[in-house]
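Allow me, if you will, to draw on your knowledge of protein folds for a short while. I have a record of one protein: its chain in single-letter code and its fold written as discrete structure tokens. I remain grateful for any guidance, and I place the record below:
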Amino acid sequence: MHKLSVVEKVGYATGDAAANLVWRGALAYLAVFYTDTFGLTAAAAAMLFLVVRLSDGVTDIIMGMIADRTDTKWGKFRPWIIWSAPFLGLFMVLCFTTPDLSENGKLIYAYVTYIGLTLTYTINNVPYSALMGVMTPSDTERTSLSGFRFAGAFAGGLLVMGFLPELVAYFGAGDDAVGYQYTMYLFAGLLIGLMVITFASTKERITPTIDTTSCLKTELIDLSKNLPFIVLPLLAMTLFFYYRELYSGIFFFVVMTGMYIVIKRLTSQSTENMTGTQRDMVDLLTNKPWLILLGMGFLTMMFNGIKYGVIAYYFKYHVADELMAGKYFVALLIVSIAGALCTSFLAKKLGKIKLFIVALMLSGLLTGALYWAPKGDVVFIFTLGCAAEFFAAMMPTLFFTMLGDSADYSEWKNGRRATGLVYSAGTFVQKTGGGFAGALVLVVLAGYGYNGMDPTTVEASLPGMQLLMSWIPAAFAFAGAALMLFYPLTTQLNQQVSDELVERRAATA
């Protein structure tokens, strides 16, 4: 088993520090930027977040396929990290730029720039996530690496969420539009520098066999024929989520029933006459650990995304101290780094499954208790919020570690390994969960009559902010804990899979 050096682990972690300058910045502040600075309505911004996730459903899978079939002297995944970094920084700036446009023009601009941001994030982050799966064959080393990764992620998020309000105030001098734009220039330059460090300090050691039976062009054409099976469920879920009425419910039920029938037929066929894309999809659809993790990724991102998405509103209106949101983010992220770094140790003691369930339950209960926080009681809010965040920080760390385990399981079971596709699904459900979480925050606020440009609507929306800060996200944590009870990859089975794969690779070599 190859033991990774601390230097390489830290180098890998800087990549997620860079990515979270975008991811946590957009997740935490983009909604309030759209409604309170750019001038979009909460309902329009909610639909924007949902529609963009439809494109992610396709681009994440395509990027996973492309990354799996990339072959350069620098490896499969590392080149994409460095190639995409400048474009990611560019769209980060454009998303927080406020051109003088009509109402419809602003909406179009928001769609174009936000889709551009999510697309470049996909091109960067799918290979970055998959890189973890080929740096070492050891599942324990991957757990440690994941801990470093999310410590880096939280550190990057700390810069954005902790200091963005002060930087906006400093650069804008009273003009938030200018302040946001110049702050993003700063973060974009830092992002590119951190991505260079990740590219230079990491190494790919596992080289999965490339499927040479068909070229990438053929596989993409084959994928395009199956796009309705990817897009339709997302469309049905989006319409039902947004409109919440009988017709969208019927459409959702019909689509999901049809999908179930199609998947059952596909997985019952022999793989001998299937294309490479179909074999990859069947491998995933018959991979029970991966399917459960798919649900876990969505539920945990809903949990974390709702909490982070409402903080800016909650402190601005419920606590009546907008700049205190930055201090709260700093406190959460410091605790998150500690939680991420403790994950590897606690996973060895309790096992990944038990630790995941404990983290979900404790974080959910502590988050729910925030409902009773007295208005303006900062000590109460900080204490419960930080305690909940310590356990919440373990969720993404465990999730991406276990995705690597599910890739090992697929290779052990089927003799094939599509690391990029496995991790692309992981980043996809996280982004989908983040999009739905951001949309849910705006949908709830709109339901309480909130209008960011009309101060008279604030008082009536405060109960919605309380629920979004407490029991609404907690419900997703409890659902995740229930789902995790069915996860089949125990510590013993993981060790068996790892040992047998090492023997197979050695024999092949």
Residues 223 and 277 are 7 Å apart (CA to CA).
